[in-house]
Amino acid sequence: MPLFTILIVLVVTGVILWLVNTYIPMDVKIKRIFNVVVVVVVIIWLLKVFGLFAYLMNIHV
Question: Are the C-beta atoms of 35 and 21 separated by less than 8 Å?
């Protein structure tokens, strides 16, 4: 996946997250949980895109 596409997805995700946080009234606890879930999903997606997710899943301690 091209780096430009990854950058566009991150920017769009950030803008959508900002819009949701700014214009949709939610309780602070729900908003915090929503933000954490979105960030975790984006991090997992980035790990998969760069091929690190499979590598991390194969590590045995």
Answer: yes
For residues 35-50, give the mean pLDDT: 94
The pTM of this model reads 0.82
Full DSSP string of 12-30: HHHHHHHHHHHHS---HHH
Alpha carbon distance 24, 7 (integer Å): 25
Is 8 exposed, middle or buried (CB count within 10 Å of its CB: 0-12, 13-18, 19+)?
A: exposed
Phi, psi for residue 27 in degrees, rounded to 5: -65, 150
